[in-house]
Amino acid sequence: xxxxxxxxVGIHGATGRMGTRLIQLIREDRSLILTCAIDxxxxxxxxxxxxxxxxxxxxxxxLESSLTTSPQVIIDFSTPGASLELAKACRHRRxxxxxxxxxxxxxxxxxxxxxxxxxxxxxxxxxxxAVNLLFKLAGEAAKALGDSADIEIVERHHHFKKDSPSGTxxxxxxxxxxxxxxxxxxxxxxxxxxxxxxxxxxxxxxxxGDNPGEHTVVFGLMGExxxxxxxxxxxxxxxxxxxxxxxxxxxxxKGLYTMADLLEG
Length: 265
Description:
Layout: E1 7-12, H1 17-28, E2 32-38, H2 50-53, E3 63-64, E4 73-76, H3 80-93, E5 96-99, H4 106-113, E6 120-123, H5 129-145, E7 150-157, H6 167-180, E8 185-187, E9 201-207, E10 214-221, E11 224-231, H7 236-249, E12 255-257, H8 259-263
Parallel strand pairs: 1-2, 1-4, 2-3, 4-5, 5-6, 6-12, 7-9, 8-9
Antiparallel strand pairs: 7-10, 10-11
Helix pairs in contact: 1-7, 5-6
């Protein structure tokens, strides 16, 4: 393969929805080069060229089940357990890690964040620039309205999504909870639940068709309602954001980073 001055990138979860789109976009980006593609150990097409696996031309990169090379940065969209194993390999090889996987429990989240001791790592529940603006606006609205508003968060995703509620919905809940000083969360409601308590934050998950993602924060007041919403029309907003994160992280020293760090320059 000819010498290339771009940033070398690996994709973990290479045949998934996000992994597939990331690889397609890397093909079009002259500042990036795909050097490894990783998926689960029982994938039936391990050892084959990832370009052909995904229905395109050859990329001269084989689909593998583990990290056997050292790209500058790896983008991970997989499962919590697989992400943790990848993080160990990245720490060993000193490979920067962008994590888009969601569904970590608190212990797993701390474990993957500890990677910052050896490598640069950026973890985000959502890489869309518009969604990260939604986080900011939701926090500002919650702070301004305080506990005078009933806050409900509704998210909608495709029926293949494994975790619920979405990582983005949980981030929104955390943002508004910190703004109003609350830790009261309820995930859906059923039965005779009584009058809605002040400060409660409702979180609701819908799973329909092939929806790539919608999130709405509802601030209900007496006589009026404010809603802040984001709707993804496809996965490109997330994918472009993840690639921007990879470019950002490849130039950074070890440490823990967020999308806010990227957006602030």
